[in-house]
Amino acid sequence: MDLSELLKIGDREKKQQKSIRVHCCTSTGCQAANSLSVKNNLANAVQELGLSDRVEVVGVGCMGFCGRGPLVQIDPEDILYEVVTPEEAPSIIDALSGGVAKPIQGNSQHPFFARQMRIVRQHTGKVDPERIEEYIAVGGYQSLYKVLYEMTPAEVVSEISKSGLRGRGGGGYPTGLKWATVAKMPGDQKYVICNGDEGDPGAFMDRSVLESDPHLVLEGMVIAGYAVGANHGYIYVRAEYPLAIQRLQKAIQQAKKYGILGSQIFESPFDFKIDIRIGAGAFVCGEETALIQSIEGKRGNPVPRPPYPAESGLWKCPTLINNVETLANVATIIHQGADWYASIGTENSKGTKIFALTGKIRNNGLIEVPMGISLREIVEEMGGGVPDGEVKAVQTGGPSGGCIPASMLDIPVDYDSLSKIGSMMGSGGMVVMDRATSMVEVAQFYMQFCREESCGKCVPCRAGTVQLYSLLDKILNKQGTQADLEKLETLCHMVKKTSLCGLGISAPNPILSTLRYFPEEYQELIPAESLNGKVRHGSS
Amino acid sequence: MSVKTLTINNTPVAAEEGKTILEAAKEAGIHIPTLCFLEGVSTVAACRMCLVEIEGINKLLPACVTQVTEAIVVHTNTPKLQEYRRMVIELLFAEGNHVCSICVANGNCELQNLAIEVGMDHTRFPYRFPKRSVDVSHPQFGIDRNRCILCTRCVRVCGEIEGAHVWDVAQRGADAYIVSGLSQPWSEVEACTSCGKCVDACPTGAIFRKGTTTAEKQRDRAKLQFLVDAREKHEWTR
Amino acid sequence: MQSITTKTKTSQAQTGKSKKSPVDKRLKALDIAMKRNHHHQHALIEILHKAQESFGYLEPEILQYIARQLKLPLSRVYGVATFYHLFSLNPSGVHSCVVCLGTACYVKGGGKITSAIEEELGIHAGETTSDKQVSLMTARCIGACGIAPAVVFDDIVTGKQEPEKVLQKIKAWQSEVIGD
């Protein structure tokens, strides 16, 4: 296939598309709310009302407003319906020819939508993720073509470097630098791994991207393979995401059929194949060295770095590991140019970031915002604040992150600002807590998570998280003393400084950040006699 | 082979490229405490005892796997490192059921030696008193998991030197334990050659020869080194 | 080579289990999966997924069979099978109920749902009722945070759950066995 054929497929698809497209979300969240029946009933209604010549019902990926699903959106008028039931669904079609739609009509101009800037999610909610033709019709795979025929691998790497893209998995390592390192390594066999082991509780951005626009990720992977000189890629996806796995499998098959994956892509000399590896329930496998162990069929124990995977990764070959969202940025950067991308965001954090906005908040769901937007804008304007209450804290970065107090909501959301205040960008979970939430309990919840997800290899993480958890338990049971609080903090620092991998290094963050910003909540749990004891002890 | 010069604890040291900081320090007569490290088998950097500070690097790095680089300035025994090492030992003592007075390895135990070295006379963390199993089904040897610190030396020595791979780690996190075969009694694992290398490799009294009682455990660590040298360097004399 | 594989398989199946034919069929599925992966040792996790899918859980005989076929040490196979949460070495119940305990679900009451079920069934998360009817599990975020708290009943995700609703569903499952 060459470019003209690719464009032809796109044109044919566009011509076939009806003038009115009724988009019905078929992602995990909305499916759980019965969106498949909604979609069926919509399609039946189109048939019954004889509108098939101008109306089509399309199953699409996540529209983001998951808390109000199932969602139905109609183009070109951009009408949004929320919480659509299968019973009410036909009335939506009826409304297209003068009837009255029963479901609640949403406001697509709401800040939740209007404040977003969609790069990674530009097609989600508009294209059918199960049909490659729809992806091609919106310009898909043109970046790959451009890369293969108009750019050298070194030019691709420099374009990504110039864009300022940083790893979206949490670390924020400059993507271009990573690509350059792998590209420079000698050796014929190299690998590209897409890390889709999104394990942070409260985060579902990657699932949504994989379910809604799998080809965007595949295209990013192939471009990465070309840039670094790899011919084989793996996508590691959590087994908890069956729909994402199924859609990826379908996408890979379709791309192979069109000669966009496999040997001699677009009839160029470049070959690239992609295999899917399915996780088996281990959070630690999100850590890149553990993930590699897992692909090799072993226990997901992290191994010390250096050597970094870029030098010695999968089967000791140079390996590029990027997160789903990182790779999903690539095609657009190539298409729109690095300068365009670098114009978005802040000085050191470029582009956009997807967040999963959840917890005690009015508007639940996924948002993609430019870097540097304030936390307040996200929580209060887009999220609509806490229903019947006030924000106490926002947790970002999952079990590796920290709790940001309401008083600091004005900080800009970017890598550096968040880590400066003891939290981190993380993969993008953003959980809002209200006044009723006990921060010590939250810290314990995360510590329980880390304790159970520790692989057990290194001592500080294996034994330290157990002791940290039981110290919090003691404190929550009002049996703690001032000395226990000090011990808690000392042990946190030790685990942070001495653990082998990111899990252990960041495990104490939720405790440290709550100790820092909500010390009174810990103090309130220390019985008074112990406090007196402390005072006497201190004054003597 | 090129030589790198570095500074360890204010002493200038020269080491061949590719050597680890641990090896370089040893050659220079500088002691760095280790626990999971065992000469002749792969390194895992799991115990974190050999962490060292390198000027200009924010992270502490394990000396057993970190290779020397030109002009680095290494500190192996700062107050912070001493404190962390002590805590590692405290965590280990609180994690298992370590009762020296009734242990075969009493007086000949690397964990005990390290406790003395780092000055740990008590642990500030509550003992976990885990329920762990003892397997004495093997005719010559026994494993008492109460004394195990999960250093995985036995796993490595059995897999890498003997080649039998009787042992591995099962479960994970705090539940992890050393397993033989499909969690079968040791005697039922056909792969075991009864070579006894795991006994020699074990730093504590977790794996022992039957018939040894309190404080009687002996190790022939030199035998392991001999085997490794024979295999890798083709030197067949001790 | 192929015929040898088949022979070992049959003899294994006979020694391993008394109910021959269904086991044979499931073993065949497992064999196909191993063959498709060229008996590569690094495909262990894929194979374990397949085995669990076919047999419901990973019994020792199956783990031993896989180890022999892939020529892996038994302890290594056991170590991998017990490392990952999704692999189960015990048979699970007829129905499964997975409560999501991701942060969003936890903040919105996932923990309360779990304790309500634990109390009702008299089992802990990760266990199966003595009548083998219901297995209760907890998950680390199933990614349905928008509809928290989420519970997965027999692989079907349902959102915005409450303890009473969940208990109703579970009681319905339990009454099936009485009805039979």
Main attributes?
heterotrimer, A: about 550 residues, alpha/beta, Glutaredoxin, Rossmann fold, Ubiquitin-like (UB roll), five-stranded mixed β-sheet, about 15% strand, B: about 240 residues, alpha+beta, Alpha-Beta Plaits, 2 domains
Report strand order across the widest sheet of chain A.
Answer: 2-1-3-4-5
User: What is the fold named in CATH at topology level of the largest domain in chain A?
Assistant: Rossmann fold
Named CATH topology of the largest domain in chain C: Glutaredoxin
- The assembly state of the depicted protein chains is heterotrimer
Largest sheet of chain C, described in full? 4 strands, mixed
Instruction: Count the E strands of chain C.
Output: 4
Class of secondary structure makeup of chain C? alpha+beta
* CA(first)-CA(last) distance of chain A: 85 Å
Secondary structure layout plus pairing:
The complex is a heterotrimer of chains A (540), B (238) and C (180).
Chain A: H1 3-16, E1 20-25, H2 28-32, H3 35-48, E2 55-60, E3 72-75, E4 79-82, H4 89-96, E5 104-106, H5 111-114, H6 132-137, H7 142-150, H8 153-163, H9 175-184, E6 191-196, H10 205-212, H11 214-228, E7 232-237, H12 242-257, E8 273-278, H13 288-295, E9 319-323, H14 324-336, H15 338-342, E10 352-359, E11 365-370, H16 375-382, E12 391-396, E13 402-405, H17 415-420, E14 429-434, H18 439-453, H19 459-476, H20 482-498, H21 502-506, H22 509-517, H23 519-525, H24 528-539
Parallel strand pairs in A: 1-2, 6-7, 6-9, 7-8, 10-14
Antiparallel strand pairs in A: 1-3, 3-4, 4-5, 10-11, 12-13, 12-14
Chain B: E1 3-8, E2 11-16, H1 21-27, E3 51-54, E4 61-62, E5 73-75, H2 79-95, H3 110-117, E6 134-135, E7 141-144, H4 153-162, E8 167-170, E9 177-180, H5 197-201, E10 207-209, H6 221-233
Parallel strand pairs in B: 1-5
Antiparallel strand pairs in B: 1-2, 3-4, 3-5, 6-7, 7-10, 8-9
Chain C: H1 2-16, H2 20-36, H3 44-55, H4 60-70, H5 74-83, E1 95-100, H6 103-107, H7 110-121, E2 134-139, E3 151-153, E4 156-158, H8 163-179
Parallel strand pairs in C: 1-2
Antiparallel strand pairs in C: 1-3, 3-4
